[in-house]
User: Fold 23S rRNA pseudouridine1911/1915/1917 synthase from Pedobacter steynii.
Amino acid sequence: MPITAKDILYEDNHLIAVCKRAGDIVQVDETGDEPLDEMVKKYLAKTYNKPNSAFLGVVHRLDRPVSGVILFAKTSKALERMNAVFKNREVKKTYWAVVRNKPAKTSGTLVHWLVKNPQKNVVTPHNVEVEGSQRSELSYRLIGELNGYYLIEVDPLTGRSHQIRVQLSTLGCPIVGDNKYGYPRGSRKGSICLHARRLQFIHPVKKEPVNIFAKLPVDGFWEKFENM
Assistant:
C-alpha cells in the first residue's frame, strides 16, 4: 500500500516522519517485499515532482510487526546529524505495549544483556554480561487495564534489536501477538501490540524541540486504548 499524505506525521526540508504500519519492513530484506523507505521515496518524488527520485536516509528502524513513528532524513546533512542524536541518546522514544499478564510491579527499570542469533532472528536475555552481549535498559509503567488486557508505557534507554519484546517477556508479560517471545499465539495480520507512540528530540538544524506523536492503529482492538 503506497504512502499518502495521511501517513505523514511530521515533515520539513530536513526530516520526514511517517506512521509505520505493522507488517511493513523499513529497508529491503530477503523477502523482496517493497520496503517503507522506497515507499516514502516514491511519495516525495510524486509530491515534489522529482522524476529522478529523492534522497532519503534511514535514521532508525522498527521491527516488522511493530507500528508507529519512524523518522527519515531528507538530506545527507540531516542524516549525519540525526545519526549523532541517536548515537548520543539525545532522543526520547516512548512505546505502548499491550500484554495479557499484569506485571508484578506497576513500574520499574529493566537491565539485561542481550545476545542476538542472526540466523534465527531471536534475542536471548541474560542477567549478567556474557560474550557477545549488549547492555539493554528500559523503564516501564503500567497505564491501565481494559477487558483483561494491560497497557504498558515503555521508555527504552538503549536501542537494541527486539529489546522491548524480550525484556517485557522476562517480566512474564509477553506482548500480545508476539509468539516469538512467549505469547501463546501469533496474529493473523503478522502484527504485535507494540506501537512507537512518540519521538522527541532537538531538531539538528533548527535547534527547536520536536515532538512527533502517532495515534494507535485502527483495527478493532488497538484504538480502544487510545484515551488511556
Notes: The domain at 5-225 is CATH 3.30.2350.10 (Pseudouridine synthase). The mean pLDDT is 93. The helical segments are 36-47, 76-87, 163-170. The two ends are 30 Å apart (CA to CA).
